[in-house]
Design a protein that fits this description.
- The chain is mostly beta strands.
- It has 5 helices and 14 strands.
- The strands form 3 sheets. The protein has a 7-stranded mixed sheet with strand order 1-12-11-2-3-13-14. A 5-stranded antiparallel sheet has the order 6-7-8-9-10, covered by helices on one side.
- The longest helix is centred in the C-terminal third of the chain and has 11 residues.
- It starts with a strand and ends with a strand.
Amino acid sequence: MKAVSVESLLKNNEYPGRGIIIGKSSCGKYAVTAYFIMGRSENSRNRVFVEDGEGLRTEAFDPEKLEDPSLIIYSPVRVLGNKTIVTNGDQTDTIYEGMDRQLTFEQSLRSRTFEPDAPNYTPRISGVMHVENGKFNYAMSILKSCDNDPTETDRFTFAYESPKTGEGRFIHTYMGNGSPLPSFEGEPEKVIIDKNIDEFTDMVWNSLNADNKVSLFVRFIDIATGKYETRIVNKNK
């Protein structure tokens, strides 16, 4: 699989939904992740990202307009020791609690399925980054319905033990707009990571559909020290 630009993938997809990017910076110094959310309904668009300790949470921008919080208010990012967990739902907590009990990433997700939002049955996408002693590896997961059949869950886990410098993987919930929304297919897309944190943040944010984008989180973790820098962009201000 050839690495392609994140910009081209996003600009050619009106509605990727929610997306996770994980990889290694072109200088080889940083473990990189990004998580974005989009929305078509007023309820989905009524959100912002807010830092929560070392992690991240979603909040209603206007609490009075908040309708059903069940699938839109959650912690997309949590940190467990040397592991950074990034997901598109409350399975962040499931992974955190499972790994804290010495379960693997994959084992922790066995109790979860796709989201109960018929007719879309939005996939649950997740990632975990492990940075320790100057080494970095990561894994990604997607839990999705089988051909929009709510009785069957397909489970896929992808592990990347030796990430290449300047490359990453990108997984998102939808292949594009539609009704119902078509779920992501195949393995995570291989993407180029060739910018510093501010350039990368600007590129991802500016490549997302202007009408549908809501919020973006980016983190660069120093592989040698574990220290990190974070950027958050919210459409609602």
